[in-house]
Amino acid sequence: MRSLAAASGGTIQEVHVQSIDRVDAIVIGAGMAGLYQLYRLRELGLSIRVFESGGGVGGTWYWNRYPGARFDSESYSYGYSFSEELLQEWNWSEHFAPQPETLRYLNFVADKFDLRRHIHFDSRVTRAIFDEDRGSWEIETGDGRRARARFLITAVGPLSAPTLPRIEGRESFKGESYHTARWPHEPVDFSGKRVGVIGTGATGVQVIQEVAKTAGHLTVFQRTPNWCAPLHNSPIEPERQAEIQASYPEIFEKCRESHGAFLHAADPRSALEVSAEERVALWERLYAEPGFGIWMGNFSDILVSEEANALVSEFMRGKIRARVRDPEIAEKLTPKNHGFGTRRVPLETGYYEVYNQDNVLLVDVLEAPIQRITPDGVETGDATYELDLLIHATGFDAITGAFDRIDIRGRAGRTLKEKWADGPRTHLGLQSAGFPNLLTLVGPHNAATFCNIPRCIEQNVEWVTELLRYMRDHQYQRIEPTESAENEWTKHVYEIAALTLLSRTDSWFTGVNQNLPDKKHTFLAYAGGSPAYRARCNEIAAKGYEGFVLQ
Ligand code: NA7
Fold it and tell me: How much is the pTM?
């Protein structure tokens, strides 16, 4: 294999349009997964080229620059764990860091490990074709680059393909208008403006509570209310910083043992086996604690038993009523069609209190659906809302969307989009039959999709790296799962999902996005938990990659 620099005749920027770079592995995406995969494969001695559609590293943290964007994971449980030096060098300023800090962190990582020189920025991969004769992948990008490699590794992110609302007249709005995941790099000023926000998912909640601070007037267009819980963020004091830096092994061990790789492990008891007083005591404690404890550290059956779930939902309903002054608004903010935790729980800081402000109006678009967007604002069935600025916090074509936006063709020219039209089919969420040497980090049906993502990213990347090492050592050129292993894994994913209330609730986990009427409703994540997933991946590797054909 020729090296990157040799293949391009100099620096990466000098690569000529249409020249084909030949490397060992192509990675799509320079977010958390892509950067770490690049680091590991380079360490293995492979030549790698990364293609990134953004103008810099960071993925999610590059794109999602909207005001209020921040971690819902404890900062120190979110950073990479692979480098002790990095852990000791980097100080998080807050327990739940804001987006600019995370982006700075990822830039720091890219510089520290000298990763940038392998990355093409502003370069979106549009096609990836498997060449059966050569046994390699060839990709093309929107900016006219071509590259060929034996391995194609996607690090495209589960929530990276934004979706705008399917509402008549959307393009006609004459004020400023942004999707939260395509936020401008320059600051946006809300002061004195009439701002509208469509969407009340985890993103909407973060942006609403921030915009409400300065907007002249804010109108929130809510379709489905979500069960939100307090984040309880705070700065990290110097003494705490020292403690954190001394206890990284314990922090990561705790994450490794918990279902979602968070610092919050479920209480093993059933909510139904304890007294009402004990239940409420735990819930009050979790509600008062920072982070996802109320979701991840709750009784073990709140996401599997309707009865347990109804109890915790009632507790959360009480909290909304206590925080929102107007009982009618409190009622509108209370979810009716799903129980607590069955969709992604938005963490908030004063979100409910926003609706006590005089400059904020909640419009329930279930009651009066949005009819159209006009040059001046939004029209619902019964009113017109004039706006200067409209924010779409309308989510993503989750988990499979970023794959569908690339024309990926495997053996016999079959597209991945066609193959996954009725739902993804994979082995371990890492490979799909008919697509040799394509490895999908944080892909559908991979535990990383329901996880404190960096923890699962590290597991995915390390597994892939060991696979490529194994293949090199044993002189294998090609890997592909068997149909039967794929069928078995897919069946397992659905069986596990069926045990949980998540699979019975419309959300991005189940592929429901009303702006994508053709998207198949199925279960896209893996709900069996990261410890079980990791054990299965390790077992398969230990058996010489059982369920995969190596040639
Ligand atoms: P989500 O959770 O998919 O939320 C999107 C929101 O936008 C949700 O409230 C939707 O209501 C709403 N939406 C979308 N289209 C419309 C239209 N046409 N009219 C009214 N309301 C609409 O995306 P987020 O970005 O908030 O969060 C995604 C993940 O990113 C999050 O879970 C974190 O893990 C990070 P609906 O629920 O469909 O009624």
Answer: 0.95
Query: Which domains are seen in the chain, by residue range?
Result: 17-57+115-161+398-550 (3.50.50.60), 194-238+261-392 (no CATH)
Find out whether the beta carbon of 204 lies less than 6 Å from any atom of ligand 1: yes
Q: Is the CB of 410 under 6 A from ligand 1?
A: no
Q: How far is the CA of 536 from the centre of ligand 1 (A)?
A: 32
CA-nearest residue, atom 2 of ligand 1: 201
Extract the tokens encoding 349: 């800081």
Q: What is the pLDDT of residues 405-439, one digit of tens each?
A: 999 999 999 999 999 999 999 999 999 999 999 99
CA of 458 relative to ligand 1 center, distance in Å: 27
Q: Three-state SS for 28? A: strand
Collapse the DSSP code of 153 into the 3-class scheme (helix H, G, I; strand E, B; otherwise coil) and give the result.
strand
pLDDT band at 18 (very low <50, low <70, confident <90, very high): low
Ranges of H-type helices in 213-360: 238-246, 248-257, 276-288, 293-296, 306-323, 327-332, 351-354
pLDDT digits (tens, 9 = 90+) for 302-328: 999 999 999 999 999 999 999 999 999
Q: Please indicate whether residue 208, judged by its CB atom, sits closer than 6 Å to ligand 1.
A: no
**CB–CB of 29/119 below 8 Å?**
no
